[in-house]
Design goal:
By secondary structure, this protein is of the alpha+beta class. It folds into two domains: 30 residues, no CATH class; 70 residues, no CATH class. It contains two helices and two strands. Helix 1 packs across helix 2. It starts with 10 loop residues before the first strand and ends with a helix.
């Protein structure tokens, strides 16, 4: 019988052919998916699946990349730059690529 540590479903069984005995079972632990985090603040993103099989992200701007608070801040800054109340050079350097992408998509 197999050892208790190898009976788990989190361990993958790999059949390896060897010259003398035909084949041998190698056990390899499955790697869990990474927790998705906001690119700016580093907070975890709720509603984003971390498994490799599913790729579901929220259907909003910057969904799956930025948290909701940071994305709302980016949208506010983009609207201020577009209206002329703020200059593009006054935007935080970390938020600059996201603001520019919003400005270029509006045109």
């Amino acid at each position: 019988m197999a050892l208790p540590k190898t009976r788990s479903t989190s361990v993958r069984k790999i059949h390896v052919r060897v010259p003398k005995r035909g084949h041998v079972l190698h056990y390899k632990r499955r790697v869990k998916g990474k927790v998705h985090a906001c690119a700016i603040s580093g907070r975890t993103l709720p509603g984003v699946c971390s498994t490799a099989r599913k790729n579901s992200t929220p259907n909003r701007k910057f969904g799956g990349t930025l948290s909701s608070s940071v994305s709302s801040r980016v949208i506010q800054l983009a609207s201020r730059v577009k209206s002329g109340a703020m200059n593009i050079s006054e935007v935080d350097i970390r938020l600059m690529p996201y603001v520019k992408s919003l400005l270029s998509s509006k045109k």
